Give the backbone structure.
Amino acid sequence: MLAIVGGSGLTQLASLTITRREVVRTPYGEPSGALTFGEVCGRPVVFLARHGYGHTIAPHLVNYRANLWALKHVGTTGVISVASVGGIRAAFGPGVLIVPDQIIDYTWGRKSTYFDASDQPVHHVDFTHPYDSALRAALIAAAAAAGEAVFDGGVYATTQGPRLETAAEINRLERDGADVVGMTGMPEAVLAREIELPYAAINVVANYAAGRASSEQGISFDSIEVVLHEAMTRVRCILDQLCGDGAVRP
Ligand code: HPA
């Protein structure tokens, strides 16, 4: 069963026929909300709104460990993260969709491992390629089948938030090699890896990053809403295709 973790702009899936909701208790506390089970084109899918169904949980306060643990616990075999980002690369303007292939982590103070109990041996996971290649390929194929353009590859920088970045910080991220910037990619991706849940992401550019193009003088929140609303319609088409054509077997 595929899981979809929705971010800003995607707190529900239009084509999801909901069958039930389940509050999962975890050793790590409360997930962002009840898991929503349902079907897309007859195939089982579980959905979770990362920031809560009322969009009240800030990126640095999301209980990523509980979210991923809960999804694993109910039998999820793969996770698609949908997350809005700021575009750093010039081609990544508002509305562009990207399936990133790399991550740089600038977050701090988040609970970013399951392996921190004092009675456990130290455990290191390989994270050379942070996203699952088969799931990425399935997403890209689903986008092609849905007739939606997505960029294959990009470096996702995860900042702490909840504030947006300064123009100088964005310049630094670009020098580091980042193409897009968001606040939730980590530790979500590494936690999925630690519990062996294949994980891939689709990023939606909500705005040019601070200091770039239309964001040179500041970031307009009014236009972000409009952009996300339109772009999430395209993301839903891709997800329908992905879930519906059996590209990811339950
Ligand atoms: N920065 C960080 N996260 C974001 C942005 C941004 O500009 N836009 C949407 N999420």
Remarks:
- The domain at 2-243 is CATH 3.40.50.1580 (Rossmann fold).
